[in-house]
Design brief:
By secondary structure, this protein is mainly β. Helix content is 1%, strand content 50%. The N and C termini lie far apart (50 Å).
Length: 508
């Protein structure tokens, strides 16, 4: 085994390399069944073993050994790799650091029992030095709002020791449960961060075709803004938006993503060599590069160097200023007398085929309500407008525009939330929840008004109240001084005139 430290350290400066986990598909119960190798961004060429050796990842639960690891992150501070055991059955998962110089492994953390029933193949280390992972519930009969937790843990500084991360493992909240973010429809995938700490999450769905036949389906890229990533633990819903569809990667297994310093995204997949439901159909590991949102091109220089080994996760320690070259669809709107007046523009209008205006009542399940042609198709920019004469029974609605380009790429605008009948809407649920000494939330007002915020205990008794003058649009509400409250359930109430919105709280 080579011990040349210079050749074994991850490349976090030149931005030439990413790293991949390769697993033995012939049988993970075989010793030396996992390896980490560098991959050149430009060609996809795969390099020598990091640390000069392969690893055997397994965990004993009772009298049975469970094998396998897919999730990978690389830390630019201590130059160590971090993996999270996937496990083929419900049970604790280990977080393992790997020193690529000495080829030593350390179990730095073990997940709590609350995470036993989740499948973890998604992990990345953010610019703030923390590691983040997303799980998928194995139990599809469970509650929808606890299907996909976002978990954070410490990377333990320069010299991670055994168990050093266990106490830091925290559930920050859950991804939205509706639409294409529901249960197994986020089964496989990976995370990556830009320099600002925005989280990008690529995923392939896994759903029933018919009967009990399961197939991989839609490939998508989502984004969680850094401001929406909770700083403390909680059980709330974390806002996440659809960034791009990847039709050419549909029906593949998305295993990993990595970003280079220019903002290109690299995707490791397993492409089926025929219909997934046919007996005997095999799959091939491939590596794709995406420079434009929604477009992925195969890198022919990539291949798995070890027989019977297939690529799983990807990781890098590069954080670009922005990712992908994307069409920018900018949407704005205002509500008036129960109707929504919407306006948008596109920075490369001459490349658009048509627009779809979409509406949702929950911010996740969007339906197309109008299809509009391109104005002035020879011009690079154009302005558009549309009036949605809403049903008066709908109190508020979310809108977005999907621009379908001539290339087939589908780009999405920002989402705007309009109050059609309501005076008040709770835009972001109270957080942290459970809370210790304070609660923050975001409300949206149709017009300037005074809002009264109250917290009530289980008997309905008032324990906290404050009134604040707010302008139209979104306002962040901070309620402090709650440390003295007893542990238990509370109700947070927001009131404007005759309208009241309530949300449940839990005091730790």
């Amino acid at each position: 085994m080579s011990m040349n430290s210079l050749s074994q350290l991850p490349d976090c400066t030149t931005g030439n390399l990413m790293y991949g986990v390769f697993n033995n598909i012939a049988g993970s119960t075989t010793a030396d069944s996992m390896e980490i190798r560098p991959i050149t961004y430009t060609t996809g060429a795969v390099g020598p073993l990091m640390g000069g050796k392969r690893y055997w990842i397994r965990r004993q639960i009772g009298t049975t050994f469970y094998y396998g690891s897919s999730a990978l992150g690389v830390n630019l501070v201590n130059n160590k790799f971090y993996i999270m055991t996937q496990m083929s059955a419900a049970g604790p998962k280990d977080i393992i650091s790997i020193d690529p110089v000495t080829a030593t492994t350390t179990i730095v953390g073990t997940t709590p029992t609350t995470l036993n029933n989740y499948h973890f193949v998604k992990l990345a280390i953010a610019p703030n030095g923390f590691a983040y992972a997303i799980g998928v519930s194995r139990d599809t009969s469970g509650a929808a709002n606890i299907c996909n937790p976002l978990v954070r843990f410490s990377t333990c500084g320069m010299t991670p020791g055994a168990g050093c991360a266990t106490a830091s493992i925290t559930i920050l909240g859950y991804l939205p449960p509706t639409g294409n973010m529901y249960k197994w429809k986020l089964f496989n995938g990976d995370l990556a961060f830009d320099i600002s700490g925005n989280l990008y999450f690529a995923s392939a769905g896994y759903e029933k075709l018919s009967g009990t036949t399961m197939v991989y389906s839609n490939a998508r890229l989502f984004k969680i803004n850094v401001a929406d990533i909770p700083a403390t633990g909680g059980a709330g819903t974390i806002p996440m938006t659809l960034y791009a569809d990847y039709p050419t990667l549909d029906s593949t297994v998305i295993n990993g993503i990595a970003l280079d310093l220019t903002g290109k995204m690299y995707v490791s997949t397993r492409v089926f060599n025929g219909p997934q439901t046919n007996p005997g159909v095999t799959s091939s590991p491939k590596l794709f590069v995406s420079a434009t949102a929604g477009v992925a091109v195969n890198l022919p220089g990539f291949s798995s160097p070890t027989p019977n080994f297939s690529i799983a996760d990807l990781a890098s320690c590069n954080f670009p200023n922005r990712i992908l070259s994307v069409s920018q669809v900018r949407l704005s709107g205002r509500a008036e007398n129960g109707r929504a007046d919407l306006n948008w523009d596109l920075n490369n209008n001459d490349e658009a085929e048509f627009f779809e205006l979409q509406r949702s009542t929950d911010g996740n399940d969007f339906q197309t309500i109008a299809t509009l042609p391109v104005n002035y198709p020879e011009q690079t920019s154009a302005k558009y407008s549309y009036t949605d004469n809403q049903d008066t029974a709908i109190s508020h609605a979310y809108y977005r525009v999907r621009a379908v380009m001539k290339s087939g790429v589908r780009n999405y605008s920002n989402v705007t939330n309009l109050l059609l009948g309501d005076k008040l809407f709770l835009a972001n649920a109270p957080s942290p929840n459970p809370f210790i000494d304070h609660v923050d939330c975001v409300i949206s007002l149709k017009a300037k008004n005074a809002i009264t915020t109250r917290i009530l205990d289980q008997r309905g008794s008032l324990v906290k109240q404050q009134t604040l003058d707010c302008n139209a649009g979104e306002t962040r509400i901070n309620v402090n001084g709650l440390a003295h409250l007893k542990s238990g359930m509370y109700i947070m109430e927001f009131r404007i005139d005759d309208q009241v919105v309530r949300s449940k709280l839990i005091k730790q």
